[in-house]
């Protein structure tokens, strides 16, 4: 069974979503299905069809979350150290063309949010950064062409 790396914050978010789906969404959709059944002919009942589709989505998401939580490998970046980039590292990069600096934390796939500086370990940039050190340059192919970044800092918070 393949482990899914994630931070404690990402793990907690998945657990909260699962709890919400089971405690709030699932009972609400069951109630909606029961109400739609009372309206009569199910073959022409759009409310019933929509509620069943919603139920299917919820059950699928519950199964997906339970699978990810069971395979989770929670990694605490503050307990890591060193000067090389690895999962959980907060990395400051300088664009070698513009000298513009940007900071990302390398996190699990399910917790990535590029707008908030959370870069998925599966992203091409993150894969290029792994095992590199401060001062190293990495080249990444982007939709807008090739970009070269220099690693300015590597921290574990």
Automatic annotation (TrEMBL):
Keyword terms: DNA-binding, Elongation factor, Protein biosynthesis, Transcription, Transcription regulation
Organism: Azospirillum thermophilum
Molecular function per GO: DNA binding; RNA polymerase binding; translation elongation factor activity
Protein name stated in the entry: Transcription elongation factor GreA
Signal peptide span: none
Record-stated family: Belongs to the GreA/GreB family.
Transcription elongation factor GreA/GreB N-terminal domain residues: 4-74
Disulfide bond listed as a keyword: no
Lineage: Bacteria, Pseudomonadati, Pseudomonadota, Alphaproteobacteria, Rhodospirillales
InterPro entries, alphabetized: GreA/GreB_C_sf (IPR036953), TF_GreA/GreB_CS (IPR018151), Tscrpt_elong_fac_GreA (IPR006359), Tscrpt_elong_fac_GreA/B (IPR028624), Tscrpt_elong_fac_GreA/B_C (IPR001437), Tscrpt_elong_fac_GreA/B_fam (IPR023459), Tscrpt_elong_fac_GreA/B_N (IPR022691), Tscrpt_elong_fac_GreA/B_N_sf (IPR036805)
Keyword set includes Ribonucleoprotein: no
């Amino acid at each position: 069974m393949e482990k899914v790396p994630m931070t404690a914050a990402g793990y907690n978010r998945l657990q909260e979503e699962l709890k919400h789906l089971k405690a709030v969404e699932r009972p609400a959709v069951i109630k909606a299905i029961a109400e739609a059944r009372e309206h009569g002919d199910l073959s022409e009942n759009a409310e019933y069809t929509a509620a069943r589709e919603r139920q299917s989505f919820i059950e699928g998401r519950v199964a997906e979350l339970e699978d990810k939580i069971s395979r989770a490998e929670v990694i605490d970046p503050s307990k890591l150290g060193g000067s090389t980039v690895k999962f959980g590292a907060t990395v400051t990069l300088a664009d070698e063309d513009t000298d513009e600096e940007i900071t990302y934390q390398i996190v699990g796939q399910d917790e990535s949010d590029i707008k908030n500086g959370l870069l998925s370990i599966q992203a091409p940039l993150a894969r290029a950064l792994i095992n590199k050190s401060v001062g190293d340059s990495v080249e990444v192919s982007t939709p807008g062409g090739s970009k070269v970044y220099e690693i300015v800092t590597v921290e574990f918070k």
